[in-house]
Amino acid sequence: MSIVTHHRWQAVPPQTVADAERPRGWASEVVTIDLRGAGVVLRRRKWWLLVPLALCAVGGLAGAMSVKPRYASTVQLLADPRELQVVRPDATLRVQTAELSASDAETTLGVLRSASILGKVVEQQGLNADSEFIGEKPSDNPALTALTALEKRVAVKRAERSFVVDVGVWSLDAAKAARIANAIATVYLQEEAAGKLEAAKRTSRALALRIDELSVRVQEAERKVAEYRSRNDLIGQTGSLIPEQQITEVSKQLVTAKARTADARARFDQVQQLRKSPLSLGDLPDAVGSAVVAQLRSRLADASRVEAEQATRLGPRHPDALAAAAQLRDVRRILDQELARVARAAEADYDRARSAEESLSRNLDRLKSLSNESGEAMVRMRELERQAEASRAIYATFLQRAKEISEQQGIDTSNSRVISPAVPSQTSSGLSRAVVLAGATMAGLLAGAGLALGRELTDSTLFTKAQFASASGLPVLGVIAPAKASPRRPKPELRALVFDDPASPLAAVAFRIMDLLRPRGSRQVAGQTIQQAAGQAARSVLFLSVEPTFQRTQLAFNLAAAAARDEGRILLVDAEPSGGFTDALVEAPQHGLADVLARRCTLDRAVLVDEDTEIGILAAGGAGAAQGRPSMDQLQATLLSPARGFDRIIIDAGGPATNSSAAPLAGAVDDVVLIVTAGVTRRETLQDTLELLDGSRSRIRGLIVA
């Protein structure tokens, strides 16, 4: 029985690879796009890019063909809100703050775009009968239609920090655009002058009526002040009562007297302190700074020095020493007498200052008593005076303003004028057809790129090795090309590429897996591995796939072929109910895996040997699909333990989601290799598969991307 045609064995050394790092757990779901691979993403999502680009390009071409040339003209106005003051002599222009000027300038922009200005322009220029502004179809209200069209064509802007306003108008006719712009400026200046004249007339009439009322109010207020002052005998200078003036003067004198008393008391205290403990060194206080005391103090110092020298040199009982001591006592006595005199003089000064202070204090209390008696009357009189003064101020202001407005009614005080009139434009403005087409194309390109990248972000389909590694947390052991069916064979052919094409990606991956899963330190001993010699169980490898793919079976067969050449006896098991390598057998076997698991036959009876590769073949079995989910103990007892005579067991088992025996097999074997399909396998499908294999995750060695 043969799976493939006979091939000549070749010595092909396996590729040396480093052991893949064991996964530490399933990776969390993170959706990212590497901007450096944006070109790859756009090529993969090319239809998401090309369809919006084509639609926008077609729309841009249609829009470009409908674009008509426009001509814009601009008139410059000096819209200065400050008025010429011909009556006031202090200035020719009304002074305004920066905030008020900016507000007035913004108001000017609104007036220029108002319906009152543009409506007069529509009427003057006959735009209500112009087909460009009212359209080809007749309108029920052509004036309103023309006004609406004109509002859309007028642009008003102000230069920063200035009163210069640019009024721009566009039209299909250059001369018409200039004519309308100049008409807007003319109507604005006329309306501004008429509005100011009308406002001045209204203000003058209102002020005339108000002035008569204010005149009567002022006379009444002044009469009340005079009558109240006369009735309460409130007479004083500079608008205040005499007692109040006296209180002010006495208060000032009392402050001076208190200061003088404090100085005298301080001088007296210093002299008294000096008498109690006379100073022998240092400067005298200001209180006793007289020439006599200074002279006596100098003599005291000299006498003290002489007495000390005589007592030291001659002894305290020597006549000269006794004379020096007597002289020192005389100087001290005279100094004490002088200090006593100074103290008496300071005490007399202190008594006089205190008496003057007490006299002023009594006088102030008396004046306050008098002032309190007439205080209430004075409060009322001051209130009446304030009311009279306010009435006079308002009356004077109204009277002056009324005269100014009356004089200015016949004078144009506006400072606004046309700086630069509008002239017909020689070149068209607005968007050109090329710009419209280029803009639409660029918009389509950006929209398509955004949609493509957005689709890449929202689509959970995995394409690259990095995406598979990130989604699973497992190393990617290799990438193999998808299997292709020939016209003769609708199903791809099962081939031993490790012999036919050792340099192919599939053969390279098979060699890499074989090297990765080879037991540590195993070597050949008399045709047997040390593992087999020690009686250990054969190392088992399980191939699973997330999506149905023939590449799983192809890879399992090539790994079996390579292992048969290098390691010895190999058992290849088809654990997939349908779609495995059983269909590639030349003859259908009588027994298979389903029969072994159901104990209808032993493993030795069910295994067939391929004549070319000497690989043991265990087919799926006819009743495999009808069997339930086997347990790991059942798999160990019926399949793995009886297979001790083989060096390696390679199992092809489909996917955990479709094959009920896949999960138990993953828990029973030594190594698991998971096959995924680029562009087909989705992130959630891969993670669901890993969840099904959660109990066997330590046995999963990595992923193969097909």
TrEMBL record:
Membrane topology per record: Multi-pass membrane protein
Subcellular location: Cell membrane
Transmembrane regions listed in the UniProt entry: 47-67
Main location: membrane
Pfam families: GNVR, Wzz
SUPFAM superfamilies documented for this protein: P-loop containing nucleoside triphosphate hydrolases
InterPro entries: Bact_polysacc_biosynth/exp (IPR050445), GNVR (IPR032807), LPS_length_determ_N (IPR003856), P-loop_NTPase (IPR027417)
Polysaccharide chain length determinant N-terminal domain segment(s): 32-124
Keywords: Cell membrane, Coiled coil, Membrane, Transmembrane, Transmembrane helix
Stretches of the chain forming a coiled coil according to its record: 204-231, 343-387
GO-annotated molecular function: protein tyrosine kinase activity
Keyword Cell inner membrane attributed: no
Gene Ontology CC annotations of this record: plasma membrane
Domain Tyrosine-protein kinase G-rich: 383-456
Protein name: Exopolysaccharide transport family protein
Biological source species: Alsobacter sp. KACC 23698
